[in-house]
Specification:
By secondary structure, the chain is an alpha+beta fold. 18% of the residues lie in helices and 30% in strands. The protein has eight helices and 29 strands. A hairpin with a 2-residue loop joins strand 21 and strand 22. The termini are far apart.
Length: 528
Protein backbone atom coordinates (compact mmCIF):
# COMPACT_ATOMS: atom_id res chain seq x y z
CA UNK A 1 0.00 0.00 0.00
CA UNK A 2 1.30 3.45 -0.95
CA UNK A 3 2.53 5.64 1.91
CA UNK A 4 2.33 9.45 1.94
CA UNK A 5 5.57 11.01 3.24
CA UNK A 6 5.08 14.44 4.80
CA UNK A 7 7.54 17.27 5.37
CA UNK A 8 9.17 16.26 8.68
CA UNK A 9 9.74 18.50 11.69
CA UNK A 10 13.53 18.25 12.00
CA UNK A 11 13.96 20.81 14.76
CA UNK A 12 11.90 22.05 17.67
CA UNK A 13 11.28 25.42 16.00
CA UNK A 14 10.88 24.25 12.41
CA UNK A 15 7.66 25.37 10.73
CA UNK A 16 8.56 24.82 7.08
CA UNK A 17 11.34 23.18 5.12
CA UNK A 18 13.10 23.60 1.78
CA UNK A 19 14.30 20.64 -0.29
CA UNK A 20 18.05 21.16 -0.79
CA UNK A 21 18.50 17.98 -2.86
CA UNK A 22 16.82 14.69 -3.68
CA UNK A 23 18.95 11.55 -3.29
CA UNK A 24 16.29 9.46 -5.03
CA UNK A 25 14.22 10.11 -8.14
CA UNK A 26 10.78 8.91 -9.20
CA UNK A 27 10.97 5.22 -10.06
CA UNK A 28 13.92 4.45 -7.79
CA UNK A 29 13.83 1.58 -5.32
CA UNK A 30 13.85 2.77 -1.70
CA UNK A 31 14.98 0.69 1.29
CA UNK A 32 14.14 1.48 4.88
CA UNK A 33 16.92 3.75 6.18
CA UNK A 34 17.86 5.12 2.74
CA UNK A 35 18.40 8.88 2.60
CA UNK A 36 15.55 10.33 0.55
CA UNK A 37 16.50 13.99 0.55
CA UNK A 38 18.40 16.79 2.24
CA UNK A 39 16.02 19.23 3.92
CA UNK A 40 16.97 22.81 4.80
CA UNK A 41 15.41 23.78 8.13
CA UNK A 42 15.57 27.00 10.11
CA UNK A 43 18.79 25.76 11.74
CA UNK A 44 20.68 23.49 9.35
CA UNK A 45 20.51 21.31 6.25
CA UNK A 46 19.77 17.77 7.42
CA UNK A 47 19.45 14.33 5.85
CA UNK A 48 15.96 12.82 5.84
CA UNK A 49 15.76 9.04 5.74
CA UNK A 50 12.91 6.79 4.68
CA UNK A 51 11.00 4.67 7.16
CA UNK A 52 9.37 2.68 4.35
CA UNK A 53 10.44 0.30 1.60
CA UNK A 54 9.15 0.38 -1.96
CA UNK A 55 9.39 2.51 -5.07
CA UNK A 56 9.43 6.31 -5.09
CA UNK A 57 6.21 7.05 -6.98
CA UNK A 58 5.83 10.79 -6.50
CA UNK A 59 7.83 13.85 -5.52
CA UNK A 60 5.71 16.74 -4.27
CA UNK A 61 8.36 19.35 -3.53
CA UNK A 62 11.11 20.05 -6.04
CA UNK A 63 14.66 21.16 -5.23
CA UNK A 64 14.62 24.73 -3.95
CA UNK A 65 10.91 24.68 -3.16
CA UNK A 66 9.52 25.26 0.34
CA UNK A 67 6.51 23.79 2.10
CA UNK A 68 5.06 23.66 5.59
CA UNK A 69 5.69 20.88 8.07
CA UNK A 70 3.25 17.98 7.46
CA UNK A 71 2.58 19.01 3.86
CA UNK A 72 2.96 16.19 1.25
CA UNK A 73 6.60 15.58 0.36
CA UNK A 74 6.66 12.23 -1.47
CA UNK A 75 4.84 8.93 -1.94
CA UNK A 76 6.40 5.47 -1.68
CA UNK A 77 4.58 2.32 -2.79
CA UNK A 78 4.60 -0.56 -5.21
CA UNK A 79 5.67 -0.05 -8.85
CA UNK A 80 2.83 1.42 -10.98
CA UNK A 81 0.54 1.59 -7.93
CA UNK A 82 -2.30 4.12 -8.19
CA UNK A 83 -1.62 6.70 -5.49
CA UNK A 84 -3.80 9.59 -6.65
CA UNK A 85 -6.33 9.04 -3.86
CA UNK A 86 -3.66 10.10 -1.34
CA UNK A 87 -3.53 13.54 -2.95
CA UNK A 88 -7.23 14.29 -3.21
CA UNK A 89 -7.03 16.71 -0.30
CA UNK A 90 -4.54 18.97 -2.07
CA UNK A 91 -5.94 22.31 -3.11
CA UNK A 92 -4.07 22.48 -6.41
CA UNK A 93 -4.24 19.32 -8.53
CA UNK A 94 -1.44 20.60 -10.71
CA UNK A 95 1.05 19.40 -8.11
CA UNK A 96 0.49 15.91 -9.45
CA UNK A 97 2.66 16.92 -12.36
CA UNK A 98 5.77 17.44 -10.22
CA UNK A 99 8.29 14.75 -10.96
CA UNK A 100 5.71 12.62 -12.81
CA UNK A 101 5.13 14.39 -16.09
CA UNK A 102 5.54 11.11 -17.94
CA UNK A 103 2.92 9.32 -15.85
CA UNK A 104 0.21 11.75 -14.82
CA UNK A 105 -1.62 14.17 -17.14
CA UNK A 106 -3.33 16.91 -15.20
CA UNK A 107 -4.82 20.15 -16.44
CA UNK A 108 -5.55 22.92 -13.95
CA UNK A 109 -9.25 23.51 -13.56
CA UNK A 110 -8.84 27.25 -13.89
CA UNK A 111 -7.69 26.89 -17.50
CA UNK A 112 -11.31 26.48 -18.52
CA UNK A 113 -14.36 28.44 -17.47
CA UNK A 114 -18.10 28.39 -17.98
CA UNK A 115 -18.97 25.42 -20.20
CA UNK A 116 -15.67 25.18 -22.06
CA UNK A 117 -14.02 21.76 -22.26
CA UNK A 118 -10.62 20.37 -23.11
CA UNK A 119 -10.55 17.81 -25.90
CA UNK A 120 -9.24 14.36 -25.10
CA UNK A 121 -5.51 14.08 -25.53
CA UNK A 122 -4.82 17.83 -25.39
CA UNK A 123 -1.87 18.67 -23.15
CA UNK A 124 -0.98 22.14 -21.87
CA UNK A 125 2.82 22.58 -21.69
CA UNK A 126 3.93 25.30 -19.29
CA UNK A 127 7.29 27.02 -18.83
CA UNK A 128 9.36 24.42 -16.94
CA UNK A 129 11.52 25.10 -13.89
CA UNK A 130 14.90 23.98 -15.24
CA UNK A 131 17.00 25.14 -12.29
CA UNK A 132 16.47 25.54 -8.58
CA UNK A 133 16.62 29.35 -8.82
CA UNK A 134 14.76 29.80 -12.10
CA UNK A 135 11.81 32.19 -11.95
CA UNK A 136 11.37 32.84 -15.66
CA UNK A 137 12.69 31.50 -18.93
CA UNK A 138 13.35 32.82 -22.43
CA UNK A 139 12.79 30.78 -25.58
CA UNK A 140 16.16 30.67 -27.35
CA UNK A 141 15.04 28.35 -30.17
CA UNK A 142 12.08 26.25 -31.20
CA UNK A 143 13.02 22.84 -32.59
CA UNK A 144 9.43 22.20 -33.64
CA UNK A 145 6.89 24.43 -35.38
CA UNK A 146 3.11 24.50 -35.25
CA UNK A 147 1.75 21.49 -37.12
CA UNK A 148 4.80 19.28 -36.54
CA UNK A 149 4.46 15.77 -35.18
CA UNK A 150 5.96 15.46 -31.67
CA UNK A 151 7.12 12.20 -30.13
CA UNK A 152 7.72 11.66 -26.44
CA UNK A 153 11.36 12.54 -25.82
CA UNK A 154 11.66 14.96 -28.76
CA UNK A 155 13.35 18.27 -28.01
CA UNK A 156 10.68 20.95 -28.25
CA UNK A 157 12.77 24.02 -27.60
CA UNK A 158 15.91 25.47 -26.05
CA UNK A 159 15.07 27.47 -22.94
CA UNK A 160 17.41 30.10 -21.57
CA UNK A 161 17.33 30.14 -17.75
CA UNK A 162 19.19 32.22 -15.22
CA UNK A 163 22.02 29.69 -15.33
CA UNK A 164 22.25 28.18 -18.82
CA UNK A 165 20.50 27.49 -22.09
CA UNK A 166 18.97 24.03 -21.76
CA UNK A 167 17.09 21.63 -24.00
CA UNK A 168 13.45 21.04 -23.06
CA UNK A 169 12.02 17.73 -24.16
CA UNK A 170 8.40 16.70 -24.58
CA UNK A 171 6.85 14.21 -22.20
CA UNK A 172 3.90 13.66 -24.55
CA UNK A 173 3.25 12.58 -28.11
CA UNK A 174 0.95 14.40 -30.54
CA UNK A 175 0.98 17.44 -32.79
CA UNK A 176 2.22 20.90 -31.82
CA UNK A 177 -1.05 22.84 -31.92
CA UNK A 178 0.04 26.12 -30.39
CA UNK A 179 3.16 28.07 -29.49
CA UNK A 180 2.67 30.60 -26.69
CA UNK A 181 6.09 32.25 -26.75
CA UNK A 182 8.14 33.19 -29.78
CA UNK A 183 11.94 33.12 -29.94
CA UNK A 184 13.30 35.82 -27.64
CA UNK A 185 10.16 36.10 -25.54
CA UNK A 186 10.22 35.43 -21.81
CA UNK A 187 7.64 34.12 -19.35
CA UNK A 188 7.46 33.10 -15.73
CA UNK A 189 7.65 29.48 -14.65
CA UNK A 190 4.25 27.75 -15.18
CA UNK A 191 3.08 30.28 -17.78
CA UNK A 192 1.69 28.90 -21.03
CA UNK A 193 4.45 27.69 -23.37
CA UNK A 194 2.75 25.39 -25.88
CA UNK A 195 -0.14 23.00 -26.46
CA UNK A 196 0.19 19.46 -27.82
CA UNK A 197 -2.69 17.26 -28.90
CA UNK A 198 -4.42 15.36 -31.71
CA UNK A 199 -4.02 16.77 -35.22
CA UNK A 200 -6.57 19.41 -36.20
CA UNK A 201 -8.02 20.05 -32.74
CA UNK A 202 -8.98 23.68 -32.05
CA UNK A 203 -7.39 25.10 -28.90
CA UNK A 204 -8.54 28.71 -29.29
CA UNK A 205 -10.94 28.61 -26.34
CA UNK A 206 -8.31 26.97 -24.14
CA UNK A 207 -5.80 29.70 -25.01
CA UNK A 208 -8.38 32.42 -24.35
CA UNK A 209 -8.97 31.06 -20.89
CA UNK A 210 -5.26 31.16 -20.21
CA UNK A 211 -5.32 34.92 -20.74
CA UNK A 212 -4.26 35.06 -24.39
CA UNK A 213 -6.07 36.78 -27.25
CA UNK A 214 -7.46 34.78 -30.14
CA UNK A 215 -5.19 36.64 -32.53
CA UNK A 216 -2.12 35.16 -30.88
CA UNK A 217 -3.07 31.54 -31.56
CA UNK A 218 -0.82 29.85 -34.09
CA UNK A 219 -3.15 27.82 -36.24
CA UNK A 220 -2.26 24.69 -38.15
CA UNK A 221 -2.80 26.56 -41.42
CA UNK A 222 -0.08 29.04 -40.43
CA UNK A 223 2.88 26.84 -39.52
CA UNK A 224 5.52 29.56 -39.83
CA UNK A 225 5.37 31.98 -36.94
CA UNK A 226 5.94 35.67 -37.64
CA UNK A 227 9.15 37.09 -36.30
CA UNK A 228 8.49 39.51 -33.48
CA UNK A 229 10.54 41.98 -31.56
CA UNK A 230 11.91 40.54 -28.32
CA UNK A 231 10.39 41.73 -25.08
CA UNK A 232 13.80 41.64 -23.47
CA UNK A 233 15.03 44.77 -25.23
CA UNK A 234 17.09 47.24 -23.27
CA UNK A 235 17.16 51.00 -23.62
CA UNK A 236 20.85 51.65 -22.97
CA UNK A 237 22.34 55.08 -22.51
CA UNK A 238 26.10 55.58 -22.26
CA UNK A 239 28.41 58.56 -21.97
CA UNK A 240 31.86 58.78 -23.63
CA UNK A 241 34.17 60.87 -21.47
CA UNK A 242 37.29 61.63 -23.51
CA UNK A 243 35.98 62.92 -26.85
CA UNK A 244 32.63 64.20 -25.50
CA UNK A 245 30.71 62.14 -28.07
CA UNK A 246 27.56 60.39 -26.89
CA UNK A 247 25.96 57.13 -27.78
CA UNK A 248 22.39 58.34 -28.06
CA UNK A 249 19.62 55.98 -27.08
CA UNK A 250 21.05 53.00 -28.91
CA UNK A 251 18.47 50.23 -28.70
CA UNK A 252 19.90 46.82 -27.98
CA UNK A 253 18.33 43.40 -27.86
CA UNK A 254 19.84 41.21 -25.17
CA UNK A 255 18.80 38.03 -23.39
CA UNK A 256 18.32 38.11 -19.60
CA UNK A 257 21.21 35.71 -19.03
CA UNK A 258 23.53 37.68 -21.30
CA UNK A 259 22.61 40.91 -19.52
CA UNK A 260 23.30 39.29 -16.15
CA UNK A 261 26.72 38.00 -17.30
CA UNK A 262 27.61 41.40 -18.75
CA UNK A 263 26.86 43.09 -15.43
CA UNK A 264 28.90 40.50 -13.53
CA UNK A 265 31.89 40.97 -15.89
CA UNK A 266 31.46 44.76 -16.05
CA UNK A 267 31.16 44.64 -19.85
CA UNK A 268 29.54 47.58 -21.67
CA UNK A 269 26.88 46.00 -23.85
CA UNK A 270 27.04 48.96 -26.29
CA UNK A 271 30.39 47.63 -27.52
CA UNK A 272 29.08 44.16 -28.41
CA UNK A 273 27.57 42.95 -31.67
CA UNK A 274 24.97 40.28 -31.07
CA UNK A 275 25.14 36.99 -32.96
CA UNK A 276 21.58 35.97 -32.13
CA UNK A 277 18.45 36.45 -34.16
CA UNK A 278 17.89 40.09 -35.20
CA UNK A 279 21.30 40.97 -33.74
CA UNK A 280 20.27 39.88 -30.25
CA UNK A 281 23.12 39.65 -27.75
CA UNK A 282 23.20 36.16 -26.27
CA UNK A 283 25.30 34.30 -23.71
CA UNK A 284 28.03 33.23 -26.15
CA UNK A 285 28.63 36.85 -27.20
CA UNK A 286 29.41 37.81 -23.60
CA UNK A 287 31.61 34.75 -23.06
CA UNK A 288 33.60 35.43 -26.26
CA UNK A 289 33.97 39.15 -25.60
CA UNK A 290 37.60 40.24 -25.35
CA UNK A 291 38.56 43.54 -23.81
CA UNK A 292 40.47 45.75 -26.23
CA UNK A 293 42.41 48.94 -25.59
CA UNK A 294 39.94 51.74 -26.34
CA UNK A 295 41.13 55.31 -26.24
CA UNK A 296 38.00 56.43 -24.43
CA UNK A 297 36.36 55.50 -21.18
CA UNK A 298 32.69 54.51 -21.34
CA UNK A 299 30.56 54.68 -18.24
CA UNK A 300 27.54 52.39 -18.21
CA UNK A 301 24.79 54.24 -16.37
CA UNK A 302 22.33 51.35 -16.12
CA UNK A 303 20.93 50.81 -12.65
CA UNK A 304 21.10 47.25 -11.34
CA UNK A 305 20.16 45.22 -8.30
CA UNK A 306 19.73 41.62 -7.26
CA UNK A 307 16.76 40.07 -5.46
CA UNK A 308 17.61 37.07 -3.30
CA UNK A 309 14.85 34.98 -1.77
CA UNK A 310 15.01 34.49 1.98
CA UNK A 311 16.56 31.21 3.10
CA UNK A 312 14.75 29.17 5.72
CA UNK A 313 17.41 30.14 8.25
CA UNK A 314 17.10 33.86 7.50
CA UNK A 315 13.30 33.79 7.71
CA UNK A 316 13.42 32.03 11.08
CA UNK A 317 16.10 34.39 12.42
CA UNK A 318 13.93 37.37 11.46
CA UNK A 319 10.85 35.87 13.07
CA UNK A 320 12.49 34.79 16.32
CA UNK A 321 14.53 37.97 16.82
CA UNK A 322 11.44 40.07 16.15
CA UNK A 323 9.53 38.08 18.74
CA UNK A 324 12.35 38.50 21.25
CA UNK A 325 12.94 42.20 20.72
CA UNK A 326 9.27 43.18 20.91
CA UNK A 327 8.11 40.78 23.62
CA UNK A 328 11.03 40.80 26.09
CA UNK A 329 11.81 44.22 27.64
CA UNK A 330 15.57 44.39 27.03
CA UNK A 331 17.99 46.46 29.04
CA UNK A 332 21.78 46.52 28.76
CA UNK A 333 24.68 46.58 31.21
CA UNK A 334 28.15 47.41 29.85
CA UNK A 335 31.51 46.74 31.51
CA UNK A 336 35.19 46.93 30.59
CA UNK A 337 37.56 44.25 31.86
CA UNK A 338 41.33 44.41 32.31
CA UNK A 339 42.66 41.57 30.14
CA UNK A 340 46.35 41.72 31.11
CA UNK A 341 46.24 38.64 33.34
CA UNK A 342 44.03 36.80 30.84
CA UNK A 343 46.60 37.37 28.09
CA UNK A 344 49.44 36.03 30.24
CA UNK A 345 47.30 33.10 31.41
CA UNK A 346 46.37 32.12 27.85
CA UNK A 347 49.98 32.28 26.66
CA UNK A 348 51.08 29.98 29.49
CA UNK A 349 48.14 27.60 28.98
CA UNK A 350 48.83 27.30 25.25
CA UNK A 351 52.48 26.45 25.93
CA UNK A 352 51.27 22.99 26.93
CA UNK A 353 51.78 20.59 23.98
CA UNK A 354 48.67 19.94 21.84
CA UNK A 355 46.63 22.53 23.77
CA UNK A 356 45.25 25.75 22.35
CA UNK A 357 42.48 27.85 23.85
CA UNK A 358 41.02 31.17 22.75
CA UNK A 359 39.91 34.20 24.74
CA UNK A 360 36.36 33.19 23.87
CA UNK A 361 36.95 29.84 25.61
CA UNK A 362 38.01 31.76 28.72
CA UNK A 363 34.83 33.86 28.57
CA UNK A 364 32.68 30.73 28.14
CA UNK A 365 34.28 29.00 31.13
CA UNK A 366 34.09 32.13 33.30
CA UNK A 367 30.43 32.67 32.34
CA UNK A 368 29.48 29.09 33.17
CA UNK A 369 31.01 29.45 36.64
CA UNK A 370 29.41 32.87 37.19
CA UNK A 371 26.01 31.43 36.22
CA UNK A 372 26.39 28.71 38.86
CA UNK A 373 26.81 31.44 41.46
CA UNK A 374 24.11 33.70 39.98
CA UNK A 375 21.35 31.26 38.91
CA UNK A 376 18.79 33.98 38.17
CA UNK A 377 20.74 34.72 34.97
CA UNK A 378 20.50 31.02 34.09
CA UNK A 379 16.72 31.26 33.75
CA UNK A 380 13.98 31.17 31.13
CA UNK A 381 10.70 33.02 30.81
CA UNK A 382 7.51 31.17 29.86
CA UNK A 383 3.98 32.55 29.75
CA UNK A 384 2.96 30.82 32.99
CA UNK A 385 6.26 30.46 34.87
CA UNK A 386 9.95 31.27 35.22
CA UNK A 387 12.32 28.31 35.03
CA UNK A 388 15.56 28.53 37.04
CA UNK A 389 17.88 25.95 35.51
CA UNK A 390 20.30 24.07 37.73
CA UNK A 391 22.30 22.86 34.73
CA UNK A 392 24.37 25.28 32.65
CA UNK A 393 24.03 24.90 28.88
CA UNK A 394 25.75 27.75 27.04
CA UNK A 395 24.85 28.59 23.46
CA UNK A 396 27.79 29.85 21.41
CA UNK A 397 26.71 31.94 18.42
CA UNK A 398 28.48 30.94 15.18
CA UNK A 399 28.15 32.95 11.97
CA UNK A 400 27.49 31.08 8.71
CA UNK A 401 26.72 32.24 5.17
CA UNK A 402 22.95 32.34 5.69
CA UNK A 403 22.97 33.89 9.15
CA UNK A 404 23.62 32.60 12.63
CA UNK A 405 23.43 29.22 14.35
CA UNK A 406 23.80 28.60 18.08
CA UNK A 407 25.28 25.22 19.00
CA UNK A 408 25.06 24.44 22.70
CA UNK A 409 27.82 23.44 25.12
CA UNK A 410 25.98 21.11 27.49
CA UNK A 411 27.04 21.23 31.18
CA UNK A 412 29.63 23.88 30.33
CA UNK A 413 30.46 24.52 34.00
CA UNK A 414 31.70 20.91 34.27
CA UNK A 415 34.07 21.21 31.27
CA UNK A 416 37.67 22.36 31.55
CA UNK A 417 39.14 24.97 29.24
CA UNK A 418 40.67 22.45 26.84
CA UNK A 419 37.36 20.57 26.50
CA UNK A 420 35.51 23.82 25.85
CA UNK A 421 38.06 24.83 23.21
CA UNK A 422 37.83 21.47 21.46
CA UNK A 423 34.02 21.42 21.41
CA UNK A 424 33.69 25.01 20.19
CA UNK A 425 36.10 24.31 17.30
CA UNK A 426 34.15 21.18 16.40
CA UNK A 427 30.90 23.15 16.42
CA UNK A 428 32.40 25.83 14.16
CA UNK A 429 33.53 23.22 11.61
CA UNK A 430 30.13 21.52 11.64
CA UNK A 431 28.33 24.85 11.32
CA UNK A 432 30.31 25.86 8.22
CA UNK A 433 29.60 22.49 6.55
CA UNK A 434 25.95 22.43 7.72
CA UNK A 435 26.48 19.24 9.69
CA UNK A 436 25.13 20.39 13.06
CA UNK A 437 22.31 18.23 14.33
CA UNK A 438 19.14 19.59 15.89
CA UNK A 439 20.20 18.03 19.23
CA UNK A 440 23.41 20.07 19.15
CA UNK A 441 21.44 23.31 18.83
CA UNK A 442 18.77 22.76 21.48
CA UNK A 443 18.54 23.44 25.19
CA UNK A 444 20.66 26.56 25.79
CA UNK A 445 20.10 28.38 29.09
CA UNK A 446 22.44 31.32 28.32
CA UNK A 447 24.07 32.63 25.13
CA UNK A 448 27.40 34.24 24.27
CA UNK A 449 28.00 36.19 21.06
CA UNK A 450 31.59 37.20 20.30
CA UNK A 451 32.56 39.60 17.51
CA UNK A 452 35.95 40.47 18.97
CA UNK A 453 37.78 38.58 16.24
CA UNK A 454 36.29 41.05 13.74
CA UNK A 455 37.68 44.07 15.65
CA UNK A 456 34.25 45.06 16.97
CA UNK A 457 34.91 46.99 20.16
CA UNK A 458 31.41 46.73 21.61
CA UNK A 459 27.87 45.82 20.54
CA UNK A 460 24.52 44.64 21.87
CA UNK A 461 22.67 41.41 21.08
CA UNK A 462 19.04 40.33 21.09
CA UNK A 463 18.16 37.68 23.68
CA UNK A 464 17.73 34.13 22.42
CA UNK A 465 14.28 33.31 23.81
CA UNK A 466 13.23 31.78 26.13
CA UNK A 467 16.57 32.57 27.80
CA UNK A 468 16.76 35.62 30.06
CA UNK A 469 20.15 36.99 29.04
CA UNK A 470 22.84 37.10 26.36
CA UNK A 471 26.44 38.31 26.66
CA UNK A 472 28.07 40.31 23.84
CA UNK A 473 31.88 40.16 23.75
CA UNK A 474 34.06 42.73 21.97
CA UNK A 475 37.71 42.81 20.97
CA UNK A 476 40.74 43.32 23.20
CA UNK A 477 41.97 46.87 22.78
CA UNK A 478 45.46 48.10 23.64
CA UNK A 479 45.20 51.61 25.07
CA UNK A 480 46.43 53.89 27.88
CA UNK A 481 44.95 53.02 31.28
CA UNK A 482 45.47 54.30 34.80
CA UNK A 483 47.02 51.85 37.30
CA UNK A 484 48.07 52.91 40.76
CA UNK A 485 47.93 56.55 39.71
CA UNK A 486 50.16 56.05 36.67
CA UNK A 487 49.22 56.02 32.99
CA UNK A 488 50.42 52.78 31.43
CA UNK A 489 49.68 50.68 28.36
CA UNK A 490 46.85 48.30 29.09
CA UNK A 491 44.63 45.78 27.35
CA UNK A 492 40.88 45.96 27.91
CA UNK A 493 37.78 44.19 26.66
CA UNK A 494 34.22 45.57 26.59
CA UNK A 495 31.29 43.27 27.30
CA UNK A 496 27.56 44.04 27.23
CA UNK A 497 24.94 41.95 29.02
CA UNK A 498 21.39 42.12 27.61
CA UNK A 499 18.76 41.07 30.16
CA UNK A 500 15.03 40.37 30.05
CA UNK A 501 13.67 42.75 32.70
CA UNK A 502 10.73 40.42 33.35
CA UNK A 503 13.13 37.99 35.00
CA UNK A 504 16.43 39.76 35.70
CA UNK A 505 16.58 43.00 37.65
CA UNK A 506 19.44 45.45 37.23
CA UNK A 507 21.06 44.52 40.52
CA UNK A 508 20.96 40.82 39.60
CA UNK A 509 22.65 41.52 36.28
CA UNK A 510 25.27 43.69 37.91
CA UNK A 511 26.15 40.97 40.44
CA UNK A 512 26.63 38.47 37.62
CA UNK A 513 29.03 40.82 35.82
CA UNK A 514 30.89 41.41 39.06
CA UNK A 515 31.38 37.66 39.49
CA UNK A 516 32.36 37.32 35.83
CA UNK A 517 34.98 40.06 36.21
CA UNK A 518 36.64 38.16 39.06
CA UNK A 519 37.12 35.07 36.91
CA UNK A 520 38.16 36.83 33.67
CA UNK A 521 40.61 39.24 35.29
CA UNK A 522 42.06 36.41 37.43
CA UNK A 523 41.58 33.31 35.26
CA UNK A 524 43.84 31.15 37.41
CA UNK A 525 40.93 31.03 39.91
CA UNK A 526 38.98 28.97 37.36
CA UNK A 527 41.51 26.14 37.77
CA UNK A 528 40.84 25.72 41.47
Amino acid sequence: MAELIKMPRLSDTMEEGTVASWLKKVGDKVEEGDILAEIETDKATMEFESFYEGTLLYIGVQVGETTNVDDPLAIIGQPNEDYTSLLTSLSDPAVLEKGNEDKVEVIKEDLVSNNSTIADGVIVVTMPRLSDTMEEGTVATWLKKVGDKVEEGDILAEIETDKATMEFESFQSGFLLYIGLQVGESAKVDDLLAIIGPEGVSVTQLVDNFGKNNSSVDKIEEPVAKEIETKQSVESKAVVIDNKESVSNKRLFISPLAKKLALEKNININTISGSGENGRIIKIDIENYKTGAPSTVILDLNESFEDVNHSQMRKTIAKRLGQSKFSAPHYYLSVEFDMSNAISFRNQYNSIPDVKISFNDIIVKASSMALSINPRLNSQWFDDKVRYNKHVHIGVAVGVDDGLVVPVLKFANQLNLSEIGSKVKDFAIKAKSKKLTSQEMEGSTFTISNLGMFDIESFTSIINLPNSAILSVGSIIEKPVVKNGDIVVGNTMKLTLACDHRVVDGLTGAKFLQTLRGYVENPVTMLA
